[in-house]
């Protein structure tokens, strides 16, 4: 009877598959949007090069890691090799230049955790944030993009999870919930842990790509075209994976002791990371190790109030997928 019940549940879950795929498809940005962004980036670089001829601009974040939905703002990193520069001065100068070029809503936020200039291009409607020399972000963007090439279920799962997080109001670090970057790492780790595994651990494989940024060596296997089909022995549908993802974070994760680590493709202990005590504002109530800045816990923004909110949302999602007659509507209901 147990077995019958389980099979029944699989069948029910798999019936949701088409609905989840439809949501995923509807969120994918059209090709022309990418083109527009690239063109805009080139014009921006030309402008910047008048003042800093050696400077280069890179896209990072969701517009470049393949986890971006349609009409997102774009994240740009200005790389100036000169070690002498003062970031605030560069940002203010940059804001000046952009303003004189008729870009709109230009604003330099020099005191933010990551200082940026914000702007909007009236010709294309593109809004963007420009930061300076945040090369690690450019590199972790490449890592995420490379993982996305291996199995399409990663992109599908991450789109659904991000869409859920935005709908339910749990995608705001300033409110103590998690960044999109953290959610994507949770998805990668989850797919590394499936049996059979759907994703490998690229950082544990032979190094084919290596850069050193701020004394951190970032090395991994990036010939992902050789890994297509890696997860094909695992036939789980996206609906089943969404269900299992929320079940894991609702009932399976050991919040007291566990750290999820994409870098090692495994679960580490808070103990070995020395993340057992609160240090400053880092409470380590949900622990997600950054793949390159390994002392960095992406869950550190979570406090004793927001951890409750998060866990209740994971439980709500798991319950809905189990029992709700129309889960796709309820799951993404605005909070
Ligand atoms: N990032 C980081 N460390 C963090 C947060 C973000 O390095 N603690 C970098 C990552 O490169 C990430 C980028 O900043 O890809 C943008 O972060 P975020 O806004 O969380 O993600 P997006 O992918 O841009 O998501 P969204 O679609 O919500 O804009
Ligand atoms: Mg972004």
Ordered list of secondary-structure elements with their pairings:
Elements: H1 2-15, H2 17-27, H3 31-51, E1 56-60, E2 74-79, H4 87-100, E3 104-109, E4 116-120, E5 127-132, H5 135-150, H6 152-167, H7 180-193, E6 209-213, E7 216-220, H8 238-252, E8 258-261, E9 266-269, H9 270-273, E10 287-289, H10 306-323, H11 327-331
Parallel strand pairs: 2-5, 8-10
Antiparallel strand pairs: 1-2, 3-4, 4-5, 6-7, 8-9
Helix pairs in contact: 1-8, 2-6, 5-6, 6-7, 8-10
The structure holds cytidine-5'-triphosphate and magnesium ion.
Magnesium ion (MG) is lined by residues 61-62, 73, 75.
Short description:
This protein is 44% helix and 15% strand.
Give your account of this protein's structure.
By secondary structure, this protein is an alpha+beta fold. It is 44% helix and 15% strand. It is built from eleven helices and ten strands. It has helices at 2-15, 17-27, 31-51, 87-100, 135-150, 152-167, 180-193, 238-252, 270-273, 306-323, 327-331, and strands at 56-60, 74-79, 104-109, 116-120, 127-132, 209-213, 216-220, 258-261, 266-269, 287-289. The strands form three sheets. Strands 1-2-5-4-3 form a five-stranded mixed sheet, sandwiched between helices. A three-stranded mixed sheet has the order 9-8-10. Strand 6 (209-213) and strand 7 (216-220) form a beta hairpin. The chain is globular, with a radius of gyration of 21 Å. The two termini are 38 Å apart. Bound molecules: cytidine-5'-triphosphate and magnesium ion. Magnesium ion binds next to loops.
């Amino acid at each position: 009877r147990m077995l019958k019940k389980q099979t029944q549940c699989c069948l029910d879950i798999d019936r949701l598959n088409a609905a989840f795929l439809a949501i995923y498809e509807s969120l994918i940005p059209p090709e022309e949007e990418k083109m527009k962004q690239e063109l805009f980036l080139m014009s921006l670089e030309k402008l910047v090069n008048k003042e800093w001829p050696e400077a280069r601009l890179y896209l990072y974040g969701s517009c470049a890691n393949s986890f971006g939905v349609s009409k997102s703002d774009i994240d740009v990193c200005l790389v100036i090799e000169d070690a002498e520069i003062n970031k605030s001065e560069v940002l203010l100068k940059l804001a000046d230049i952009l303003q004189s070029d008729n870009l709109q809503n230009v604003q330099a936020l020099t005191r933010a955790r990551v200082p940026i200039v914000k702007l909007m291009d009236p010709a294309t409607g593109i809004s963007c944030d420009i930061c300076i020399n945040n090369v690690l972000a450019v590199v972790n963007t490449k890592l995420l993009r490379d993982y996305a090439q291996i199995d399409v279920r990663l992109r599908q799962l991450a789109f659904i999870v991000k869409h859920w997080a935005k709908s339910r109001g749990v995608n705001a670090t300033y409110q103590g919930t998690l960044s999109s970057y953290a959610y994507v790492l949770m998805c990668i780790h989850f797919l590394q842990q499936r049996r059979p595994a759907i994703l490998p651990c690229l950082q544990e494989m032979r190094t084919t790509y290596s850069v050193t940024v701020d004394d951190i060596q970032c090395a991994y296997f990036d010939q992902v075209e050789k890994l297509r089909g890696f997860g094909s022995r695992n036939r789980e549908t996206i609906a089943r994976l969404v269900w299992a993802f929320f079940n894991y974070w609702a009932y399976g994760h050991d919040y007291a002791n566990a750290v999820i680590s994409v870098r090692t493709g495994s679960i580490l202990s808070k103990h070995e990371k020395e993340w057992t005590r609160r240090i400053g504002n880092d409470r380590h109530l949900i622990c997600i190790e950054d793949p390159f800045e390994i002392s960095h816990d992406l869950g550190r923004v979570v406090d004793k109030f927001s951890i409750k909110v998060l866990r209740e949302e994971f439980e709500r999602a798991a319950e809905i997928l189990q029992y709700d007659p129309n889960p796709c509507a309820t799951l993404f209901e605005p909070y």
